[in-house]
Amino acid sequence: MSWTLTADRIDDLARGAAVLGTGGGGDPYIGSLLARQALAVHGPVTVVGLDEVPDDALVLTVAMMGAPTVMVEKLPSLDEVIAPVNALGTYLGRPVTHVACAEVGGVNSTIPVAAAAALGLPLIDADGMGRAFPELQMVLPTLYGVTASPLAFSDEKGNVGVLQTVDNHWTERIARVACVEMGCSIMISGFPMPGPVAREALVPGSLQHCVDIGSGIARARAEKTDPVSATVALLDGREFFGGKVVDVERGTTAGFARGRARIEGDAGTLTLSFQNEHLIARTDDEVFVTTPDLIIVLDAESGEPITTEGLRYGQRVRVVAAPSDPRWHQEAALAMVGPGYFGYDVPSHRFDGTPEGALAGAVA
Description:
Layout: E1 3-5, H1 10-20, H2 28-42, E2 45-48, E3 59-66, H3 68-71, H4 78-92, E4 98-101, H5 107-119, E5 123-127, H6 140-143, E6 151-154, E7 160-163, H7 168-181, E8 185-193, H8 195-201, E9 203-204, H9 206-222, H10 227-235, E10 238-253, E11 256-265, E12 268-275, E13 277-282, E14 287-290, E15 294-299, E16 316-322, H11 331-337
Parallel strand pairs: 2-5, 3-4, 4-5
Antiparallel strand pairs: 1-2, 3-8, 5-9, 6-7, 6-8, 10-11, 10-16, 11-12, 12-13, 13-14, 15-16
Pfam families: S-Me-THD_C, S-Me-THD_N
Protein name: DUF917 domain-containing protein
């Protein structure tokens, strides 16, 4: 069922997307500013369900690629956002009919709003993963054989390019090099899909889920109840740690924000390892949860999500784990997004602490 996205829902959307972004996906404030600007100039966006996308549609994803830490200072413009969509439509020789989120985390839930508003296109209430992941090929459409290329990209200088590659991993590798050369933050559009493929490969209801999470946090604060507990309930997740941030190591390398954070609490010291997004949460004695399930850091009092670039010494936080889309626990998916892919010799653990039972995706 379609619904209308107006400026008064952007804060809830951005807040919920920051929760699902698991620390990555970029600063939600920047994305909300861009979306508000587009909505103010071009009017509200029609959001449609996957079941409303016609078979002959041309669906393109729109996203920011790069290090979220860079985007804080390298603000995108609307022209930069729509340039790759227009370039890809021209390359394909047919009009784009729908815009979708590649991921639902952080700015990559609100940048497609800006693109849809500026282009006058409907936005699909769905995304490619149900969370955020650091690499381009890490979307469910990859598991369904959808190619990322042709993929178009643009930067703030006006550079625009289109890639045609042999597979999605090569699209990631080549686009990442371009991203680094263009300042570690670019806009991209790709994964062209007709309606039937989009209905099969995307995660339905993602944007509405973001709005529900964001409004749930705001409502809990207004009612003076616990916003963290409200978020846990909306995610069907669990809160597993709380404490004070005592150390953050963070750097931008190869186009990613990589590092780790340590949180001291009554249960010991929790270490969070991240590459844009949180990948592993563990103490010296226990692994609590790993990718592909969600690791979410929330402010202990306000319940506001804290991104990896926003982590600071002294913050009081509570850490939540939540389940990912079940398709991420297939063997092929774990090989693509499990801890082994990122070089960690740790079995994948689900949000409830249950091990997957193998070093899925381990690098030989």
